[in-house]
Design a protein that fits this description.
Layout lengths: L9 H29 L1 H4 L2 H19 L11 H18 L11 H10 L5 H19 L6 H62 L3 E5 L5 E4 L1 H10 L13 E2 L13 H6 L7 E5 L6 E11 L5 E10 L1 H28 L1
Helix pairs in contact: 1-3, 3-4, 4-5, 4-6, 5-6, 5-7, 6-7
């Protein structure tokens, strides 16, 4: 799979063009401009004009053709056209500008970096074609050691460059795969975390109880409407000290509970409370609650926060009080006649 992935958009084609072809196109256009003013006799030669035509045609095809809807391996043809163009340019200008073979770096890098490892050898063969093209036309081999060096030096350098670039490309592909796998796992974990949060919020809003969860900094992370209503009726806030109200009484409904001994302050100090009964509100308009608190820890023991739950048991407490009064009255009423009888 080429490293220059094509997205099915115009922006995707432009991105591939900018990364793969644009540098080579600009370099050849700069060369053509210089040649037109400095070496006009070479500029109008068939070889040079043919090279420019190949560069322009290849760049145009890469820019406008719908490569995103066909196999991206066809892009190799654009790089090969660039290599042929370099061969034509070098043939025409070698005597005046012998270093023009360096233009082969652009398509060779593209072939080595952007495609499968096997395509790297296409770039090596292309560089060999560039240096041996003049000898192919003359149908003869290099005649001296210097000519052999000129013919083989560029392909040898391209081999080392292609190996280095291809190795880097494979490492980048492996790193990208690992990053994508890690990102996929993070996405799954994030989705599970979001689902767990939605479930927790649904539970908080559904259960008929006042519930709140405080973080490690004693700030409420989540609380339901019942919790806000309870503390509001007592004149204090869930997120501001002292987290306690004046009209809070013990089970006897008479003894006031100090601020520091009320449910939230005790829970935030780390105490765990189970089945604690308090009466809330001024005398004559009191409600009974059954409160429990729990410290929440990670598996390694790190404290995550404190959970507080309070259930309204006013009806049950009143029923128990009525029952006790009834039993007391019946016991007293039965005791008087039984004493007389005895």
């Amino acid at each position: 799979m080429p490293l220059f992935e094509l997205q099915p958009t115009q922006e995707g084609r432009i991105r591939v063009f900018a990364r793969a072809q644009l540098p080579f196109f600009l370099a050849t256009m700069l060369l053509a401009t210089v040649c037109a003013f400095v070496l006009p006799e070479h500029f109008w030669s068939p070889w040079f004009l043919g090279a420019m035509a190949l560069v322009v045609l290849g760049s145009l095809l890469l820019f406008v053709a719908p490569w995103d809807r066909i196999s991206s391996n066809w892009l190799i043809l654009i790089a090969l056209a660039d290599i042929v163009a370099v061969a034509f340019i070098r043939l025409e200008l070698y005597n005046d500008v012998p270093g023009l073979g360096i233009l082969a770096v652009f398509p060779v890098l593209w072939l080595s970096y952007g495609f499968r490892p096997a395509v790297m050898f296409v770039g090596v063969a292309g560089s060999l074609f560039i240096t041996t093209f003049p000898y192919m036309l003359r149908q003869q081999l290099p005649q001296s050691a210097l000519e052999w060096i000129n013919a083989l030096l560029l392909p040898a350098c391209v081999v080392f460059m292609a190996v280095a670039v291809g190795t880097a490309a494979r490492q980048l592909r492996r790193s990208r795969v690992r990053v994508e796998q890690h990102a996929a796992r993070l996405e799954v974990a994030l989705r599970e975390s979001q689902d767990a949060e939605l479930i927790a919020r649904a539970v908080f809003q559904t259960v008929d109880a006042a519930m709140a969860f405080y973080g490690v900094h004693n700030k409420p992370v989540i609380a339901n409407e019942q919790a806000y209503q309870v503390v509001s009726s007592l004149g204090f806030s869930l997120d501001k000290p002292p987290y306690a109200g004046h009209d809070v009484f013990e089970a006897d409904r008479v003894t006031r509970i100090p601020f520091s001994e009320q449910i939230i302050p005790r829970a935030l100090r780390g105490e765990e409370i189970a089945g604690h009964i308090e009466w809330l509100g001024p005398p004559g308009d009191q409600k009974a609650i059954l409160a429990s608190t729990k410290r929440v820890h990670r598996e390694d023991g790190t404290v995550l926060g404190t959970f507080i739950a309070c259930f309204d048991i006013t009806d049950l407490a009143n029923a128990v009080s009525v029952r006790e009064q009834f039993l007391t009255t019946v016991s007293h009423e039965l005791r008087t006649p039984l004493t007389s009888i005895m």
